[in-house]
Every structure is written in structure tokens, then in C-alpha cells.
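Final report, section 2: Outcomes. Of the targets proposed, Capsule polysaccharide biosynthesis protein is the one most frequently requested by collaborating groups, and we therefore present its record in full.
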Amino acid sequence: MGGSTGTLSLFFPVFIPAGAAAVAYAGHRAMYVDWRMWATHFLTAPGWKSRILLLLFLILNWKSLPLAWTVRIFHSFIYHVLRRPKTLPQRALFHYSVTSSRTSLLETDYNMHKSNSTYFADLDVSRSHLVTHLLMPAMKRIGNNDKTKLVMDKDGNLIKGGFGIGLGAVFCSFRKEIAPLQGYEMWSRVLGWDRKWFYIITHYVVKGKVRPTGWDDRKMGPTRAPRVVSADNGEPVSNEDWSKYVIATAISKYVFKLGRFTVHPAIVIEAGGLLPERPGEGWRGGETGVGTPDDLGEIDPEAEWDWKSVELERRKGMQYAGHFAALDGTNSLFDGGEDGAIGNFPLG
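The predicted structure is given below as C-alpha cells.
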């Protein structure tokens, strides 16, 4: 789910069988290797020191090796095909997906910290985990639109084609550096959506410093106690500043496609069972195409999760995503060098 996924409809019928066949063939060939003799030769034959150093270098830099990015992305797909629970609580829509990583030596720049450009490869992996986990059922249903008939055009005609997800833009704000071989975590969640774009926010966080209060599925790591609120005004008693552990923050926007047709994000989220029913014109009504601008009033955070809770979170996120979306207009600033250019330089 980087620049563009092309068509995810190929993933299940093509890539999974091909990958399974490749693994099966590799396993079959491995059965005929004398691993004890191979290991003895590797560790004792002339040149063993160089081989061990090379192996150590490859292990420390595995995520920067050729095809490693592809392996990481496809691992996220396959992992959630095999391990995702059948249903998720609707609150999970705005919950974080946590992915751990470590800076390899080959990601380190001349300033001796993680190169800014390498953050975006990690973002691909983190977003893939989040979106695949949340929306895998929706991907299957919308990809099979001939039968489910979830996506129609404005005239009521059935839309055909393969389901795909395209990355429209990424913004990243850097606060702290990440040292060579330092571990870190990427906390990604849904920020909001409008009639076209689906926004995701990702925080790079110091590893091991922040724990969630719980997990939607089985226990996947340590947790911390839920925040305590005052009995008088409902305000949090503890004012822990979690932002002090944030290394960088990125916002990404996705567009969902069925063939060449742009699918409203609310259709995809609804197909995944993560949107409570909204009265009136629903999640795609009103002038903005994301629901009528109802006054949500006071919302009790401990009350039942309903459409008002979802809309409140969506509006919070769109206060930031809206400014990000406005940057699309900067394309018009390009004038083709109307007043000249500095030069055309090699090795770009």
C-alpha cells in the first residue's frame, strides 16, 4: 500500500497461491541439503571470519536489502489473512495499530541518524498493517461487487473492476532523531475521511515507552491502567504528556478505487462493519457528502459507542487533515521555469 496497490483483487487469487507454491518448492529443496555439513563448512573453512561478518552485516541491515520492502508488505497482508479475528468492535476504527522496527545501518545518513527519506518505507508497512486489519472484510466484499452490489454510480449502475487503494500524499513532521540500530514503534490510526480521501495518522514513538490500555483482540503486549477521571467534572486526573515520546508524526491519505471509479470511504468502512447506523441521510448525505452537519452536543466518553461518537472523532481529525488537503493547491504554483532555472544537475 505504497504509491499504489494496483488491484488488490489479484492478491488472493494470484499472489497467495504463487507465494505458497514458492515456499513449498523452497521447503522441498531444503530437505535435500546436508545442513550440518554446510554449517561446519561455513564456520570453519578458510575465510570463515569474513563470512560471519558478512552474515552479521546482512542481519543488521535485512530491511534495507533488495526485495525486503516487498517481503514486509506482503507479510502484513498474509499475517492478517491468517491471524485477524472475524469481527472487530466498532471502537477499533480509531484504535492504534502498533508496528515495531529498528534503524538499520544502511538507513543511516551522514549525520549518523535515520535518514528522513527512509521514514516513508516504514510508513508503507505500518499503514498496510492498519488498513488490512481494519478493512480486509470490506476489501473482499467490494472486490466482489458483482455479487454484493455495494458500489453504484449516481445513476444506479453497478460499478465493475478490481478493488485498489492508491496513496495520494504523505506529510511528515520530524521532532527528534533516531540513532543507528535504535528501536522505535509506529502507531497508526484512522484520522478521518471526506467524500474522497481516507486519512491516516502515524506517530513514530520511542520503543517501549508507551503502552495501550488494552487490545481489541488477544493480548499482544503489556498494557497500562486506564486513565482515571475526576468524579466531579469527568476530567482526567493524570496529565501524562505522551507527546514527549513522539519522534515524528506523519499524515497519509488514501483513495479507494473500483476499476477507475472512486469509492466513497464511508462505503468501505461500512462494508467492514465498523460504522454505526447514522440517521437521516446517513454517512454520505449533506452538502459535504459525509453526512449532515448535526449538532453532536455533549458526548459521554463512557457511553455506548454510536454514530455521534464516530462523527466527533472524524471531525477532530479533519481539523488537521483539512489543512493537509489544502496543500493540493500548491500544484498550481508550478510555472515551468517562466523566469528561468538555476541549472540541470547530474546524479539526481
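The two ends are 26 Å apart (CA to CA).
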